[in-house]
Specification:
The chain is of the alpha/beta class. Helix 7 packs antiparallel against helix 8.
Length: 279
């Protein structure tokens, strides 16, 4: 059985309201989704519902999980509206062959965004860093959005648009060394926040980034409910998810995979960053 985003939001709202009511000794537990939908929402704190306009930028050969993980969390913000934005509304294929249909183009994307989130990739990100329309779009919304965010090498794209100069930021562990090209200070962190710039590490860090923002825009209890509903309790079968935990031979082998990309990213980055100053 498929569940719509509205039903999920209503279910979340019911769960949150039930939690609050239980804490206050005002109501019994909710036993079904139908009851959740009909639940009296009068006790829900005002800050649990917002009107955020959230845009996720996608482009050919982006990494889908960079976007989808953050999207799952941020789409749980009651009252928010999410937009999947690309240059046009034509289908966009990710680096692993998943196809996404944008809900908005650069032209008809809402003008006033609360959050813009940029996923990463490899060759697709390098191409996006050299695309003038993409850089213009990011530079414009980066000046006005309440929060400018990225996942993985999406931070390189933010940097290319001139949006990380003077900010601390992170990226995929293999590409953090490129960040100074854009005037950013690289930080080893799963999620790094510097004022209104929030950047996430590689791929799965998008889930953490999204959940962090949920807590920032609502509160801890709301974010914990979102985490519980997602059953986000990582227990990976291997403990090699960071350079310091991976076996030396695995780290050495993986390093060789990024040599050319890092060189290209630095070269493309310098050119794109210089170009962005004139946009």
């Amino acid at each position: 059985m498929s569940i719509t985003r509205r039903e999920l939001s209503l279910g979340l709202a019911g769960l949150l309201a039930s939690t609050l009511a239980s804490q206050q000794g005002l109501a019994a537990e909710i036993s079904s989704a139908a009851q959740a939908i009909d639940h009296d929402m009068s006790g829900v704190p005002a800050n649990w519902t917002g009107k955020e306009q959230i845009a996720f930028l996608i482009y050919p050969k982006f990494t889908a999980l960079d976007m989808v993980g953050a999207h799952h969390m941020l789409a749980s913000l009651m009252g928010s509206t999410t937009h999947i934005v690309a240059k046009t509304k034509d289908p966009v294929t990710s680096d692993q062959g998943l196809v996404f249909t944008p809900s908005a183009s650069f032209e008809d994307c809402p003008k006033n965004l609360d959050i813009i989130c940029v996923p990463g990739g490899s060759t697709g990100t390098l191409a996006a860093m050299q695309d003038e329309d993409t850089l213009k779009f990011l530079k414009h919304h980066g000046r006005h959005a309440k929060y400018v965010t990225s996942v993985c090498t999406g931070s390189l794209l933010l940097g290319a648009a001139g949006l990380l100069k003077g900010y601390k930021a992170t990226s995929h562990w293999a590409t953090r060394e490129v960040l100074p090209v854009f005037g950013a200070t690289p930080v080893d962190g799963r999620v790094v926040r510097d004022r209104n710039r929030i950047t996430g590490g590689g791929v799965t860090a998008g889930i953490d980034l999204g959940l962090t923002i949920v807590g920032l825009l609502r509160d801890t209890e709301y974010a914990q409910c979102v985490q519980l509903i997602a059953e986000y309790a990582p227990e990976p079968p291997y403990d090699a998810g960071t350079p310091d935990r991976a076996p030396a031979n695995v780290k050495a082998m993986t390093d060789t995979m990024f040599v050319n990309f890092i060189k290209q990213a630095a070269a493309v980055g310098r050119s794109a960053y210089a170009h962005s100053k004139g946009l």
